[in-house]
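Aim 2 progress. For Mitochondrial inner membrane protease subunit 2, the working sequence is reproduced below.
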Amino acid sequence: MQRRREIKSQQLIPQRRLYLRSEIRSRLKRNQKKTEEEDIAKGPKKLEEQRKKFLDRSEAMTFLRPAAVPSVRLNKLSSQPKPVNKISFKVSEILNGNSEYDFEHRYGGVCPIRGSSMSPTFNPSVGSFTDDYVFLEKFCLDKYKFSHGDVVIFSDPTNYKERCVKRIVAMEGDYISNVGGVVKVPEGHCWVEGDNSASSFDSRSFGPIPLGLIHGRVTHIVWPPQRIRKIDRRIPQEGLA
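Predicted structure tokens for this construct:
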């Protein structure tokens, strides 16, 4: 009788082991699921805490890029920096990389002028070592507010990868005389020509351009120092019909 009990108990040992293993696995799965649910429930709180910590650090420091603002000297931060006001924080936002891109993309930027097609307005000296650098403002792109005589930078209609700088001579609805006769500028277009007509590839060759190709209006020469000035609207009348 005792022998039978021993044999039976030996037969039950593997079954108990399997049961214990399955029980341990199920408990681990339940605990893991419970932990995941708790993490999901606490997720927004953790994100909010991290966001507050980041804001606290941002308010305590002003980030400046020396490459972007070479004239600014960074002061050494004290061991216990004082939080700056909202205006200073906004200035630091403007000076970071993304805001620089947004500013140039939305409001304007500085770009060089190559060639002599707009001489003497730009690059009047052929032997000059430095090209003119101009400020390109983009407020005019709001509802395409352009006027006769505006100097604009636009994508070349024959090669969209290239950019050209010309002066608006005629707007939509105007009639202008060209080699082939009198041309009416269609709606949503303008007629552009270079100030140096002898060496300018402009609307006389490719016709009126859509206003959507314009990147902005040139308002000032900002470099070199002796060339700093405002760009005047000079409207040539010889071409208008």
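Confidence is low (pLDDT under 50) at residues 58-95. This observation will guide construct design in the next reporting period.
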